[in-house]
């Protein structure tokens, strides 16, 4: 169906599709190629890029749901696109967008050389930086207000989120062992115990963001009972 919400979702999908295109086909950073000359997985080495891809996938699911699903608060028989969209936003889109944005700008405030050295500025434009690290937070929060979702059980949500985070953690170590270079310079200044503590804190923070998203959603749309199988849920009677 054609609606303002569908147009918003189409626009967001277009923005992230464009960002992905620029990232993979137009963004060229010679010093990064030299730094990872032993093993260079390209832009997929960065969690930021994973986050942008997640947003593109999510808003594509939103478009499918707009046309073939429903945006009702608690549909009795939620269509498949609605169920997938809701799970994806709760488990990946919101926590990952907020995680990437908050950690990036937090480390930038402490010392930008830890995440985005000034030497990269001629190759990495400011507008692209904001699409990747600012816009992802803006659009995922707007989506919270624009459309309701049915949260999965907290167990299923945390399982999905931590599988993703563990996958990236393993991937980052694979890159290090093959290239002898950390993807993020902040890892180079941390000893092994501090690095482990850093990862533990980040994992805990990602879990907190999942919970914060659930609370935020319930504040906006009301407390809706969770189900373990993503089945339709009904509002609790007052």
UniProtKB/TrEMBL annotation:
Report the sequence similarity comment from the record. Answer: Belongs to the AIG1 family.
Q: How does it sit in the membrane?
A: Multi-pass membrane protein
Q: What Pfam families does the record tag this protein with?
A: Far-17a_AIG1
Residue intervals passing through the bilayer: 7-24, 44-67, 87-107, 127-146, 158-176, 196-216
List the protein's name: Androgen-induced 1
The record's GO CC annotations read: endomembrane system; membrane
Compartments annotated for it: namely: Endomembrane system
Q: Which domain of life is it from?
A: Eukaryota
Catalyses: 13-(9Z-hexadecenoyloxy)-octadecanoate + H2O = 13-hydroxy-octadecanoate + (9Z)-hexadecenoate + H(+); 12-hexadecanoyloxy-octadecanoate + H2O = 12-hydroxyoctadecanoate + hexadecanoate + H(+); 9-(9Z-octadecenoyloxy)-octadecanoate + H2O = 9-hydroxy-octadecanoate + (9Z)-octadecenoate + H(+); 12-octadecanoyloxy-octadecanoate + H2O = 12-hydroxyoctadecanoate + octadecanoate + H(+)
Keywords attached to this Swiss-Prot or TrEMBL record, sorted alphabetically, are: Membrane, Transmembrane, Transmembrane helix
